[in-house]
Amino acid sequence: MTNLDATTMVLVLALGNLALCALLTFYDHGPVRPPALGAWALSKQVQAGAWTLLALGGASIVPEALALPGGYALLFAGVALEAGATFERAGRHGWRRPMVGAACLAILVFFACYLIDEQGLRSVAASLLLGGFYLAGAAALARGWREASLLQRFLAVLTAVLALVVAARGLSVLLLPGGWRWLSNDLLRMLSNTALYLLMLANGYGMLLLGREGAARELARLEVVDPLLDVPNRRGFFNALAPWMALARRPGLPTALVVLDLDDFKRVNDGYGHPAGDAVLRHVVELCRRQLRDSDLVGRLAGVEFAILLPRTSADEAMLVAERIRAAIATSPVKSERAMIAMTASFGVTVIRPEDSNVTLFQRADDALRASKAAGRNRVSQAAAASADV
Questions:
Q1: Is the pLDDT reported for residue 389 higher than 60?
Q2: Which domains does the chain have, with CATH numbers?
Q3: How far is CA 351 from CA 5, 192, 317, 325, 346, in A?
Q4: pTM to 2 decimals?
Q5: Backbone phi and psi for residue 121, each to the nearest 5 degrees, phi listed first
């Protein structure tokens, strides 16, 4: 590859990263930009500056003594940031210290090779270091492989393959200075530059597509999950209830339903403020979870009304569970900034009957709940017995 070809490729990489920076200006990331997207945007800006400086050096506009070490220092910092952004997206929020350390070490290694003033040694160091950073990004994309989307798996594999192509150039110079058969150093240099270009496109647009995919997945989750309490909302609870309604028509162990309503909750919001009310709701959900099995499910139906699904549980067993939760709520006040807030709750308990619909099931549970309220609150009542309630 001629010097002109190499300079042209570096200029293409510079313009490509600048185009990605411009694209981010118009990218709709929602009201709050995710930290991973912020780190990735910064990495693109640093890489754009790096490739621009290298292109100016190749065109003899900037002295090589400034362009080469400065450009590669920025490039290592940029790809380290890009790998860190991928780890941030994967949930590894402590990436900054190791990645900053790795970038500093890479810069020192390259500077040492530059001071030795050996062209081949610089090429080996640059290829191996860049390939290593991109492999780290591929490892971050591969986290949670079983739950990952097809897009994320594809990007992980593609990034790993291209990173190996970039690193192969350095390895070939180190191990096979004269090339190997038809695989000459010039061909490897061309493949390496092409791999860097494809990495720019794949990681650039791939990150944006993954961001869109994640936003769509979160929107779908919020349709069935209460954002404050991280439990199923009314729709999510009814979705989880549906198969148990169908199983109730078959012989076997019954499934119980418990509904609960916090007593006189309005005084909390009026007297202590809505943040205190939110703290009380989170506390109640946590108390419920402590008393439930992994197979049980608590959901928020509306306001301060909750429902608990107890698979393979009889009415008497459900009464015991509800009583434990009632006692836990009554004896566990919530500490707020202004006072200790004591709460109680009333409960209604029933089991799913073969002939039940959602309407009849919740009507019966609500009748039992109203009976608890009428009897003085802070108590558990069972729905009227039937042959199925055993």
A1: no
A2: 3-222 (1.20.1070), 226-382 (3.30.70.270)
A3: 76, 66, 11, 18, 17
A4: 0.70
A5: -65, -40
Taking the alpha carbons at both ends of the chain, their separation in whole angstroms is 83
Within 10 angstroms of residue 187's Cβ, the number of other Cβ atoms is: 14
pLDDT at 259 over 90: yes
Query: What backbone torsions phi and psi does residue 387 show, to the nearest 5 degrees?
Result: -60, -30
Greatest Cα pair distance, the chain, in angstroms, is: 92
Buried b (16+ CB within 10 A) or exposed e, 282-297: ebbbebbeebbeeebb
Contact, 255 vs 247, CB < 8 A?
yes
Cα 319 to Cα 67, 87, 187, 329: the distances in Å are 76, 47, 76, 15
How confident is the model at residue 2, as a pLDDT?
43
pLDDT of residue 373: 94
Which residues sit opposite 226 in a β-bridge?
Answer: 231
Q: How far apart are CA 131 and CA 291, in angstroms?
A: 51
